[in-house]
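A quick word before the example. In earlier lectures we treated sequence and structure as two separate objects. From today on, think of them as two lines of the same record. Here is Alpha-1,4 glucan phosphorylase written that way.
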Amino acid sequence: FGEGEKAKVERMFGLMDGFLKNDPVSLQKDILDHVEYTVGRSRFSFDDFEAYQALSHSVRDRLIERWHDTQQYFKRKDPKRLYYLSLEFLMGRSLSNSVINLGIKDQCADALNQLGFEFEVLAEQEGDAALGNGGLARLAACQMDSLATMDFPAWGYGLRYQYGLFRQVILDGFQHEQPDYWLNFGNPWEIEHLRISYAVKFYGTVEEKQLDGHHCKVWVPGETVEAVAYDNPIPGYGTRNTTNLRLWAAKPNGHYDLESFDTGDYINAVINRQRAETISSILYPDDRSYQGKELRLKQQYFFVSASVQDIIRRFKDSHRNFDQFPEKVALQLNDTHPSLAIPEVMRILVDEELVNWHNAWDIVRKIFSFTVHTVVPGGLEKIPVDLLSSLLPRHLQIIYDINFSFVEELKKRFGLDYDRLSRMSIVEEGAVKSIRMANLSLVCCHAIDGVSRIHSDILKTRVFKDFFELWPQKFQYKTNGVSQRRWIVVSNPGLCALISKWLGTDAWIRDIDLIMGLRDHVEDAELQQQWKMVRRVNKIRLAEYIEAMIGVKISPDAMFDVQIKRIHEYKRQLLNILGIIHRYDCIKNMNKSDRRNVVPRVCIIGGKAAPGYEIAKKIIKLCHAVGETINNDPDIGGLLKLVFIPDYNVSVAELVIPGSDLSQHISTAGHEASGTGNMKLLMNGCLLLATVDGSTIEIIEEIGKENMFLFGAKAHEVATLRAKGQARKVPLQFSRVVRKIRDGYFGSEVYFKSLCDSLEGSGDFYLLGNDFASYLEAQAEADKAFVDQERWTKMSILCTAGSGRFSSDRTVGEYAEKTWRIEPCRCPF
Ligand code: GP0
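And the structure line, produced from the sequence above:
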């Protein structure tokens, strides 16, 4: 420091008075200050929402402190960093998660109590940050939590949508979509950095120029938009480390060339500029179906370009040239959505930083890795060349150049095998010439990960078979995981305390393998008793919520059987509903004494359908129609209920999961890449009724099939079964149930016709008919087990005890070691 600087720094330290304090009185002062100076209310009169805002701002102050320390430390240490690029992050609520990770939950609760507020009530004031669709997006959120907790120098990058995933409203049993303008209520969890912004270009032409004696391509854009950074601190648990999720918002670019205003149409010129903001305005609600829309492509490039510019700027702050880039930077692509980052890095290095093509290519091949999340080839992104050439002309050239070398390499290796060349080429010829984003990623990334073992096998033997033959070493898998902080500590405090009590430590919150220590106590009647009590309290809480939301009264003595996930044909919510109709029929046909042996069930289904996915919407309607019939049938009484929980999201999941006895993961084998809901439920001691698919296969290895209810065709049988078509055997009960729907027993015969058609004969692509009998058997097994409450409770304890492998800490640890090659960098305070 110079003399003047030094005096300034000393003065700052003098004024700082140390870090913010976390005792209840200090917290109270901070909260009241924020009520008055941030929220702008009088400290003598503020309501729950205002208290929530003030509390959040107080927590945010503490996050910022740690965030600064962590970033300072990273800067000084200059470790290799990971940048996690994802178009979607499903963060849900932040308050509870933050205070728990900061270790100040009790102090906050005390502070609030004395002010006349209750922490839990304030936490309910927060809306969800729903900047994602489903599993893929929540996985990104869990991995951010693990990265911070494990002290990895990692940042997330994404888009700050103004409208999150639509809110699902049910009217007369039909799904309606309502916009989620979530920022209306303010967002205390983000820090706006108006000075951190980058220009992102679109359209225009590519010109050849001489620059500093280099021959280079210069992209002259037709439109420029500004990307502004919004930082969302991600606190680790049990560490001071606080990392960052940087989300970009689109703003009109400030450099107005006078020409565009010369037309005299001042108002329209400004309005046109203002349209830039639409780029980050809305999240596409389609789960794994590629739409080919220009706005979506703009979103992808916008967020990727800003992120790459930011990463390169940060690297250049402390390095003179790019030699060390691969030792300092790893970029992870969450699916192919961010894969334009590849040509973007090439473009900036070659066109702007004047690195020669070969060196740039060498760098690119070392820094990128990507994760695949699907098995359905139809889910893979393809960008029409026409679209790309108009929107990103320079990137198209770069992709062509990469493809040219790649095809040459293929010819050398395999000769002129044209079928193979056309399958593997990044460019797909045909009616609509397009760029295959998966192939681009496969060519340019050094590692390609599946999300479970079976998924990886399917990628290697089917979806990306050709690429596996070429580069077997690139193919790996990291079975997904979920954060025990979010899914036990935050959402199930009762179980959390019980686990810590019986393990004699809460160290499992950072070191999940310890959780298997519960196995040593599984026979202990006292633990069983307490376990049952905790679960019962959670069930009561869930029952109250259901009654408040949809007016159906349910008993906590019944078995709570849940299926919560996006609605998809392959996930087979329909199989569940058919099973319920069958159960209803059976009960109706029983005499009084037989009915006494029926295990009372509450079937709970929740999930959103993509707005344009007709069949999925019909499934929701059918669920309501069946529920209506059953729930209002006095003859059935408490033996069976079917409820649809509207607007399933992260915070609803936090309520449902701890209160579930049985959960269904019943995709047609070979279709669910991994599944992560199964892991969350498993952790919470919920038993699984499942097909042998995705990560369930690995769960079986951990807890044993005797502690689960498995059924259905295996993945390797599916193709043969499908080929049989009409000739497949279908049980009588199945046809009878479908008949009932066809005959209008649940109303709307015409509306449900296409659903029924999708179930019969060769229409039954997802093999519901084939799996129905074994599904019913598995359900009967579950009933039998539930009658023996001691046995059930033991199984439940073993589920939690066996869930350690499914922590995202394990997943992230594997990525860090094998793919990203990053080390922890713990901020020492
Ligand atoms: C997969 F392709 N997933 C996609 C997609 O577009 N969105 C999405 O959420 C899911 C998979 O279906 C999964 O099996 C997987 O576990 C998850 O991504 C995370 O890898 C559902 O849980």
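Notice the following. The chain has two domains: 78-93+128-479+816-820, 492-806. We will return to this example when we discuss secondary structure assignment.
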